[in-house]
Amino acid sequence: MPAKITEVVVKDIRFPTSLEAHGSDAMHTDPDYSCAYVIIHTDSNDALEGHGPTFTIGRGTEVVVAAVEAMTFHLIGQDVQAIFDDFGGFWRKFVADSQLRWLGPEKGVVHLATAAIMNALWDLWAKREKKPLWKLLVDMDPEKLVACVDFTYISDCITREEALAILKKNSDTKHERESFLKENGFPAYTTSVGWLGYSDERIQKKCQDALKDGWTMFKMKVGANLEDDIRRAKIIRQEIGYENALMMDCNQRWGVHEAIEWMKPLAEFKPKWIEEPTSPDDVLGHAAIAKALNPLGIGVATGEHCHNRVMFKQFLQSGAMQYCQIDSCRIGGVNEILGPANGQEMSSVCEYVDHLREHFVYPVEMKGPNYLPPTKPGYSTELKPGSIEDHLYPNGRVWEELRKEGKIKNSFGSFSFLCFNNFYKFCIFLFGLLFHFQLLSLGHLCITHSQTGL
Amino acid sequence: MPAKITEVVVKDIRFPTSLEAHGSDAMHTDPDYSCAYVIIHTDSNDALEGHGPTFTIGRGTEVVVAAVEAMTFHLIGQDVQAIFDDFGGFWRKFVADSQLRWLGPEKGVVHLATAAIMNALWDLWAKREKKPLWKLLVDMDPEKLVACVDFTYISDCITREEALAILKKNSDTKHERESFLKENGFPAYTTSVGWLGYSDERIQKKCQDALKDGWTMFKMKVGANLEDDIRRAKIIRQEIGYENALMMDCNQRWGVHEAIEWMKPLAEFKPKWIEEPTSPDDVLGHAAIAKALNPLGIGVATGEHCHNRVMFKQFLQSGAMQYCQIDSCRIGGVNEILGPANGQEMSSVCEYVDHLREHFVYPVEMKGPNYLPPTKPGYSTELKPGSIEDHLYPNGRVWEELRKEGKIKNSFGSFSFLCFNNFYKFCIFLFGLLFHFQLLSLGHLCITHSQTGL
Is Magnesium one of the keywords (chains A, B) (predicted)? Predict the structure, then answer.
């Protein structure tokens, strides 16, 4: 059914999660989990809307909203099927806007805005096909899938033809893997045991509860105080033993040398990885850290703040990243994930945080510690209309009430009440699935190519 | 004199330069030279204001304005002398805002906004000291200068102590270099001969005129069509000979392999550098290009879109950049330039474009093809009040008139009339001076360190 885009609406939605400090870390001490949320309307009789978020943590969401508004003129009047027929080409035209690209290019606010818009388009496409997004991607003809990708700046590592060959090669076992995943779900790890501010007793209790619930992989925050980190790691290992996995995350706190020195005494607790040990821009720094920590059996994980495919390419080229944590809300939507960047173990495990579930039209379903693939048409990131309305910033009901109760001093204050959390991990999750089905070995090719190339 | 910040105003100022396509290149086909322009007011009796721009090229300037507005709460009520006494610490606190950093961190729109704000603070400081900014920096005690810098994420290449040692070591010859520069000025090159759209005759004429005016260094745009590039390079070399320097600029048009292949047949025209051969994020790609082009005598220049000190660090570490083109409107203001990044030849030459002169309170002064150091207090980037008012977007006089005349179809149209140009090169220029005086060898140390480190 033909459909032209008639309107693009963008909303500033914020959940006051900082009131209970859930999700806080050493660098992001008071996150209000938020999003710039895009809704695409068309003139079609089917009344389908594309909904797409990009994730933010409070202040500045209005800046991303302004960026979306600056970009919508590229969408109005476009035929959606024409977009989907050459989605890679459309994506390139979009990110290469001759004036807006100066504000990036392909990074920061304009790229977050691109992500929200592209995610909304993918949602619309999947709804039109009456499939969950992962299934749309899985069923897609390899040629068509590759046509969604812009290979600009990455063809020294992977070309359209090479990507196509990989997809074709792996297509035989696709149905088998799909059945396995539907049956077993997709493994997740929990971060709930290791927030920085927890007391020792709370850590113990959280570990015991998580073990009872079947969790086998645990992540703790580190980086504020080394002695504390050692003590907390000891407690967690006492509870979970060494047959379960432990990961550590310092959220960009360290310089390169500092990261290496800090991790040496923590090596006895056998962390699987150290996450974001330094600036997310420092490819060579991560490579130096990975090289130094490799003999200790510790890998480097990063990607949450890695801003585009060109950066992922380099992280993979240089051996700077052993665990790839790509985020479809940070880079330019699904299209950019499809391209170059996926790590060796990207598809093996996804982070799990369960807050904010209640606000989704189709919340994520778990089977023990595994994610089950979504079943409803679309991206499954659509928020309930009531949740959107209540959390509009600054004048939604929730914010008006907080203001009346004196829990917000001004629009910039930090505060302490209520509790919600995390939905962007869910977007990441979806792409774990995607890789599992289609694209697992693209990353390997990328690495192989580049290690010989430089 | 004590002074607290009472108000921060930010304006969206745009010059319709696209009407005559000056400054256009392969990627930025219709730039309207613009800026988010910050004015800082204090409660001091001296009535001094800090003026600072960040450069943009039209659409999306309002997004940078929104980012500045999201950040101003960090400034209101602050004592300016307390900021300047620990400028590095203030800078870090500013860019590490626990919620806003999610939108970068330290890149894109939020970093452009940071640049405008920091530049306005530097302007205010210099005005308070009654010195041009370069002179404030030159005269500054090395300890104080180093205190302006945030060494986070770069201390694996250069520490505070190492930077201090370099500054102290070079201080003996400072006055000598200052006198030389005041007398002779600072060398510039011209880009006016080589815009992509010029006819062969126009190129010839432009070369002849530039030679008459004393120019010895010329830059041409390349990358749209190889045969054209060869023909145009031939014409320019016929006019300027081989005793003058020729540089080439492709403005991010190529992939890595493509850059190398494209430049091979152009090597016979002996370009000094190829500028922005690929994505500005691709450190390893630039390194591969530099390695391949080195035997042909061609260096790699980049930096205009290099977004922060962490990126510059890596470009210098990996030999990816032989000519460093840092921009105080792209990275986080003067503070971030002072830190890690400066290339071997950064201080040897600055780009020259002469448009928009008439809008500056203190326009740049030339001595032949050399820049003379500014003499008036402040940053010398202050625009005339009338120019600001006339070019406010979307309702300043100039824009209203263009609309009446039907020369703008809508706020996104491209058009063809009028002529202004370039002031951000001027900001870059100022920092060429700075390096010349104080910091020339920091880059060498950075490179030396890193090449052994990885």
Answer: yes
